[in-house]
Amino acid sequence: FAAADLKADREVVLEAVRQNGRALQHAPEGLRNSQAIVLEALRQEGQAFQTAGAMLQRMILEEPRCRTALCFCHQELLDDEDFLLAAVREHGLAIKDAPKVWKRDRKLVFEAVRQNGKALELAHDDLCDDRDLQPRRVARNRIAGKGIAAPTFMAGPARQVPNGGIDVEVSALNGTVATLRLDSGASVGALAAAIVAHFTVDGALVHLVISGAVVRPLDASRKLSHIAPSGVPCSPRSGSSSSRSSSSSSSSSTSRVSAAGPLRGRFWK
Protein backbone atom coordinates (compact mmCIF):
# COMPACT_ATOMS: atom_id res chain seq x y z
CA PHE A 1 0.00 0.00 0.00
CA ALA A 2 1.28 3.45 -0.86
CA ALA A 3 1.98 5.96 1.88
CA ALA A 4 -0.63 8.66 2.43
CA ASP A 5 1.60 11.38 0.98
CA LEU A 6 2.10 9.35 -2.21
CA LYS A 7 -1.63 8.71 -2.56
CA ALA A 8 -2.17 12.46 -2.45
CA ASP A 9 0.46 13.12 -5.13
CA ARG A 10 -1.29 13.87 -8.42
CA GLU A 11 1.53 12.56 -10.62
CA VAL A 12 1.83 9.35 -8.61
CA VAL A 13 -1.91 8.69 -8.87
CA LEU A 14 -1.90 9.51 -12.58
CA GLU A 15 0.88 7.00 -13.21
CA ALA A 16 -0.89 4.41 -11.06
CA VAL A 17 -4.15 4.58 -13.03
CA ARG A 18 -2.21 4.39 -16.30
CA GLN A 19 -1.10 0.95 -15.15
CA ASN A 20 -4.37 -0.11 -13.53
CA GLY A 21 -7.55 1.94 -13.79
CA ARG A 22 -8.94 0.47 -10.58
CA ALA A 23 -6.15 2.18 -8.65
CA LEU A 24 -8.46 5.20 -8.72
CA GLN A 25 -10.43 3.76 -5.80
CA HIS A 26 -7.42 4.30 -3.52
CA ALA A 27 -6.95 7.96 -4.47
CA PRO A 28 -8.14 10.73 -2.13
CA GLU A 29 -11.49 12.33 -2.91
CA GLY A 30 -9.90 15.48 -4.29
CA LEU A 31 -8.11 13.52 -7.01
CA ARG A 32 -11.16 11.37 -7.76
CA ASN A 33 -12.78 14.64 -8.81
CA SER A 34 -10.10 15.23 -11.46
CA GLN A 35 -11.43 14.65 -14.96
CA ALA A 36 -7.94 14.04 -16.31
CA ILE A 37 -7.21 11.29 -13.79
CA VAL A 38 -10.60 9.58 -14.13
CA LEU A 39 -10.40 9.64 -17.94
CA GLU A 40 -6.89 8.20 -17.83
CA ALA A 41 -8.16 5.37 -15.63
CA LEU A 42 -11.01 4.68 -18.05
CA ARG A 43 -8.63 4.77 -21.02
CA GLN A 44 -6.50 2.08 -19.39
CA GLU A 45 -9.55 -0.06 -18.64
CA GLY A 46 -10.88 0.33 -22.16
CA GLN A 47 -7.58 -0.85 -23.62
CA ALA A 48 -7.37 -3.73 -21.14
CA PHE A 49 -10.87 -4.94 -22.06
CA GLN A 50 -9.95 -5.18 -25.74
CA THR A 51 -7.11 -7.60 -24.94
CA ALA A 52 -9.02 -9.63 -22.33
CA GLY A 53 -10.24 -13.13 -23.13
CA ALA A 54 -13.87 -13.79 -24.06
CA MET A 55 -14.68 -15.28 -20.65
CA LEU A 56 -13.29 -12.26 -18.79
CA GLN A 57 -15.10 -9.88 -21.13
CA ARG A 58 -18.40 -11.64 -20.47
CA MET A 59 -17.80 -11.50 -16.71
CA ILE A 60 -17.15 -7.76 -16.89
CA LEU A 61 -20.41 -7.31 -18.77
CA GLU A 62 -22.59 -9.54 -16.59
CA GLU A 63 -21.10 -9.55 -13.10
CA PRO A 64 -22.47 -6.63 -11.02
CA ARG A 65 -19.37 -6.63 -8.83
CA CYS A 66 -17.14 -5.97 -11.84
CA ARG A 67 -17.17 -2.19 -11.90
CA THR A 68 -15.37 0.40 -13.97
CA ALA A 69 -13.31 3.33 -12.73
CA LEU A 70 -16.36 5.54 -13.25
CA CYS A 71 -17.94 4.17 -10.08
CA PHE A 72 -15.04 5.57 -8.02
CA CYS A 73 -15.18 9.14 -9.30
CA HIS A 74 -16.76 12.06 -7.47
CA GLN A 75 -20.55 12.47 -7.78
CA GLU A 76 -20.06 15.93 -9.23
CA LEU A 77 -18.54 14.41 -12.36
CA LEU A 78 -21.48 12.03 -12.78
CA ASP A 79 -23.77 15.03 -13.23
CA ASP A 80 -21.63 16.51 -16.01
CA GLU A 81 -22.82 15.53 -19.50
CA ASP A 82 -19.61 16.56 -21.24
CA PHE A 83 -17.54 14.51 -18.81
CA LEU A 84 -19.76 11.44 -19.26
CA LEU A 85 -19.43 11.73 -23.04
CA ALA A 86 -15.66 11.86 -22.68
CA ALA A 87 -15.77 8.92 -20.25
CA VAL A 88 -17.65 6.52 -22.52
CA ARG A 89 -15.48 7.55 -25.46
CA GLU A 90 -12.53 6.21 -23.50
CA HIS A 91 -14.29 3.09 -22.22
CA GLY A 92 -17.74 2.36 -23.60
CA LEU A 93 -18.55 -0.11 -20.84
CA ALA A 94 -18.26 2.71 -18.29
CA ILE A 95 -21.92 3.34 -19.04
CA LYS A 96 -22.47 0.41 -16.69
CA ASP A 97 -21.68 2.75 -13.79
CA ALA A 98 -23.36 5.87 -15.15
CA PRO A 99 -26.47 7.17 -13.33
CA LYS A 100 -29.64 5.39 -14.50
CA VAL A 101 -31.02 8.48 -16.21
CA TRP A 102 -27.99 8.57 -18.50
CA LYS A 103 -28.35 4.92 -19.50
CA ARG A 104 -31.41 5.89 -21.51
CA ASP A 105 -29.79 8.94 -23.11
CA ARG A 106 -29.44 8.07 -26.81
CA LYS A 107 -26.52 10.42 -27.40
CA LEU A 108 -24.48 8.98 -24.53
CA VAL A 109 -25.34 5.39 -25.43
CA PHE A 110 -24.37 6.05 -29.06
CA GLU A 111 -20.91 7.24 -28.03
CA ALA A 112 -20.50 4.27 -25.69
CA VAL A 113 -21.43 1.84 -28.47
CA ARG A 114 -19.09 3.59 -30.89
CA GLN A 115 -16.22 2.84 -28.49
CA ASN A 116 -17.39 -0.68 -27.64
CA GLY A 117 -20.30 -2.38 -29.37
CA LYS A 118 -21.06 -4.45 -26.27
CA ALA A 119 -22.01 -1.28 -24.39
CA LEU A 120 -25.54 -1.54 -25.79
CA GLU A 121 -26.07 -4.52 -23.47
CA LEU A 122 -25.60 -2.15 -20.53
CA ALA A 123 -27.96 0.58 -21.71
CA HIS A 124 -31.59 0.93 -20.65
CA ASP A 125 -33.85 -1.79 -22.03
CA ASP A 126 -35.85 0.83 -23.94
CA LEU A 127 -32.85 1.46 -26.19
CA CYS A 128 -31.77 -2.10 -26.92
CA ASP A 129 -33.85 -2.30 -30.11
CA ASP A 130 -33.12 1.24 -31.28
CA ARG A 131 -31.92 0.76 -34.85
CA ASP A 132 -29.61 3.78 -34.76
CA LEU A 133 -27.78 2.33 -31.74
CA GLN A 134 -27.08 -1.13 -33.13
CA PRO A 135 -23.30 -1.75 -33.14
CA ARG A 136 -22.97 -2.42 -36.87
CA ARG A 137 -24.94 0.68 -37.73
CA VAL A 138 -22.93 2.80 -35.30
CA ALA A 139 -19.68 1.46 -36.76
CA ARG A 140 -20.72 2.71 -40.21
CA ASN A 141 -21.70 6.16 -38.93
CA ARG A 142 -19.15 8.77 -40.09
CA ILE A 143 -20.63 11.81 -38.32
CA ALA A 144 -18.50 13.09 -35.45
CA GLY A 145 -20.13 13.84 -32.12
CA LYS A 146 -19.81 17.02 -30.09
CA GLY A 147 -16.26 17.62 -28.91
CA ILE A 148 -14.63 15.13 -31.28
CA ALA A 149 -11.62 16.41 -33.22
CA ALA A 150 -12.62 16.05 -36.88
CA PRO A 151 -12.71 18.26 -39.99
CA THR A 152 -15.86 20.25 -40.77
CA PHE A 153 -17.65 20.24 -44.11
CA MET A 154 -20.48 22.44 -45.32
CA ALA A 155 -23.19 21.04 -47.58
CA GLY A 156 -26.07 22.62 -49.43
CA PRO A 157 -29.49 21.01 -49.90
CA ALA A 158 -29.84 18.01 -52.19
CA ARG A 159 -30.73 18.75 -55.82
CA GLN A 160 -32.56 16.25 -57.99
CA VAL A 161 -30.83 15.23 -61.23
CA PRO A 162 -32.45 13.74 -64.36
CA ASN A 163 -31.23 10.18 -63.76
CA GLY A 164 -33.08 10.02 -60.45
CA GLY A 165 -30.09 10.65 -58.21
CA ILE A 166 -29.24 13.76 -56.22
CA ASP A 167 -26.30 16.16 -56.25
CA VAL A 168 -24.98 17.77 -53.09
CA GLU A 169 -22.36 20.50 -53.18
CA VAL A 170 -19.85 20.09 -50.36
CA SER A 171 -17.09 22.45 -49.30
CA ALA A 172 -14.23 22.02 -46.86
CA LEU A 173 -13.07 24.85 -44.63
CA ASN A 174 -9.93 25.20 -46.76
CA GLY A 175 -12.11 26.22 -49.70
CA THR A 176 -12.06 22.92 -51.60
CA VAL A 177 -15.45 22.28 -53.22
CA ALA A 178 -16.87 19.08 -54.69
CA THR A 179 -20.27 18.01 -55.98
CA LEU A 180 -21.13 14.51 -54.80
CA ARG A 181 -23.76 12.41 -56.56
CA LEU A 182 -25.80 10.02 -54.44
CA ASP A 183 -28.87 7.82 -54.82
CA SER A 184 -32.17 9.67 -54.60
CA GLY A 185 -33.01 7.94 -51.33
CA ALA A 186 -29.61 8.62 -49.75
CA SER A 187 -29.41 9.52 -46.08
CA VAL A 188 -27.36 12.10 -44.23
CA GLY A 189 -25.14 9.24 -43.10
CA ALA A 190 -24.52 8.25 -46.72
CA LEU A 191 -23.44 11.81 -47.47
CA ALA A 192 -21.00 11.77 -44.53
CA ALA A 193 -19.55 8.46 -45.76
CA ALA A 194 -19.20 9.87 -49.29
CA ILE A 195 -17.38 12.92 -47.92
CA VAL A 196 -14.96 10.73 -45.96
CA ALA A 197 -14.22 8.69 -49.09
CA HIS A 198 -13.97 11.62 -51.52
CA PHE A 199 -11.79 13.83 -49.33
CA THR A 200 -9.83 10.88 -47.84
CA VAL A 201 -10.50 12.05 -44.29
CA ASP A 202 -8.07 10.87 -41.62
CA GLY A 203 -9.94 9.31 -38.72
CA ALA A 204 -12.98 8.66 -40.96
CA LEU A 205 -15.22 11.07 -39.01
CA VAL A 206 -16.49 14.49 -40.04
CA HIS A 207 -18.49 17.34 -38.60
CA LEU A 208 -21.23 18.19 -41.06
CA VAL A 209 -23.26 21.37 -41.51
CA ILE A 210 -26.17 21.17 -43.95
CA SER A 211 -27.95 24.35 -45.01
CA GLY A 212 -26.66 26.11 -41.90
CA ALA A 213 -27.67 23.42 -39.40
CA VAL A 214 -25.17 21.30 -37.47
CA VAL A 215 -25.73 17.58 -37.98
CA ARG A 216 -25.31 15.13 -35.10
CA PRO A 217 -24.55 11.38 -35.35
CA LEU A 218 -28.14 10.38 -34.57
CA ASP A 219 -29.32 12.38 -37.60
CA ALA A 220 -27.56 9.89 -39.89
CA SER A 221 -30.72 8.02 -40.92
CA ARG A 222 -32.59 11.15 -42.05
CA LYS A 223 -33.10 11.37 -45.79
CA LEU A 224 -31.30 14.09 -47.68
CA SER A 225 -34.45 14.65 -49.72
CA HIS A 226 -36.17 15.82 -46.51
CA ILE A 227 -33.76 18.70 -46.04
CA ALA A 228 -34.79 22.17 -47.09
CA PRO A 229 -32.67 25.34 -47.01
CA SER A 230 -32.60 26.91 -43.55
CA GLY A 231 -32.18 30.59 -44.25
CA VAL A 232 -28.99 29.94 -46.20
CA PRO A 233 -29.38 30.79 -49.89
CA CYS A 234 -28.15 28.17 -52.35
CA SER A 235 -26.89 29.64 -55.60
CA PRO A 236 -28.41 27.79 -58.56
CA ARG A 237 -26.17 26.47 -61.28
CA SER A 238 -25.73 28.75 -64.28
CA GLY A 239 -28.54 28.67 -66.83
CA SER A 240 -32.26 29.26 -66.50
CA SER A 241 -33.14 25.57 -66.73
CA SER A 242 -30.89 24.77 -63.75
CA SER A 243 -32.44 27.63 -61.85
CA ARG A 244 -35.94 26.27 -62.45
CA SER A 245 -34.85 22.76 -61.49
CA SER A 246 -33.31 24.03 -58.28
CA SER A 247 -36.43 25.98 -57.42
CA SER A 248 -38.66 22.98 -58.07
CA SER A 249 -36.45 20.68 -56.00
CA SER A 250 -36.34 23.17 -53.15
CA SER A 251 -40.11 23.49 -53.13
CA SER A 252 -40.55 19.72 -53.09
CA SER A 253 -38.06 19.34 -50.26
CA THR A 254 -39.79 22.05 -48.26
CA SER A 255 -43.10 20.20 -48.41
CA ARG A 256 -41.46 17.02 -47.13
CA VAL A 257 -39.37 18.53 -44.36
CA SER A 258 -42.45 19.61 -42.42
CA ALA A 259 -43.33 15.96 -41.88
CA ALA A 260 -39.82 15.11 -40.70
CA GLY A 261 -39.66 18.06 -38.34
CA PRO A 262 -38.12 21.50 -38.90
CA LEU A 263 -34.55 22.47 -38.20
CA ARG A 264 -34.45 24.30 -34.90
CA GLY A 265 -31.89 27.05 -34.47
CA ARG A 266 -28.56 25.90 -35.81
CA PHE A 267 -28.86 22.31 -34.63
CA TRP A 268 -31.06 19.41 -35.55
CA LYS A 269 -33.22 18.13 -32.73
From TrEMBL:
UniProt region (Disordered), positions on chain: 226-269
InterPro entries, per database record: DUF4116
Descriptive protein name: DUF4116 domain-containing protein
Pfam families: DUF4116
Residues annotated as domain DUF4116: 9-53, 105-132
Species lineage: Eukaryota, Sar, Alveolata, Dinophyceae, Peridiniales
TM regions (residue ranges): none
Biased composition (Low complexity): 229-258
Superkingdom of this protein's organism: Eukaryota
